[in-house]
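Issue 218. Parser rejects a valid record. Input:
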Amino acid sequence: MARPCRYAASKVEEWRSVDLADLRRWRMLDRTRMASSGKIPAVTWNTPDGLDKLGVIAQPRGVLFVRRDDQGQLGKLFVPFTYTPTKFDGWRPWFRCPGCGQRCRVLYGSNSLRCRKCRGLKYQSQYETRAFRLLARARNIRRRLGKPGESVDPMPSGDPMPPKPRYMRWRRYRQMEELVWRLEAAGWAEMSVHFVGMRRRIQ
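Output the parser choked on:
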């Protein structure tokens, strides 16, 4: 069945993604750690056929991604870094998109990696009400606090927060916890107003 016109563009939430910020937070770009463990870290996704993995090999000027296809053949893709200056004389790394060459933080795809503009993707929030945007933001924070390297569904609204990641300060964790509670409370309040308005229109 054809997708409605306003949903003609694919959404980023429908695609597998690799976030540079996640790789740094999960210490997948720590070459010393990888050398000492002797294992290649990997980003994993849950699929109907089981886990799908994308190996991450940190290199001085970028990241080498490795993945086996359905026939067992090993594919490789090197994505270089590009840098922008920060406020205190530092440098912030970004991916250089293999497609257009522009800097980006998130790459999308599995067999090939491209930025959001190359894929022609839009955000789900562009189609949602404010209530859904608030709840989605809270959900993303819960996902970030989840188990490193796994893109799994986070705990739903109202459930206890995921435990504090090992390398996060307690102060930062408490700030994120408070933000999640405020976002979820505001989101459900907006949802209640939305449903009341719908009921009145129907009546």
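Fixed in the parser; the record now loads. The first strand starts at residue 17 and ends at 19.
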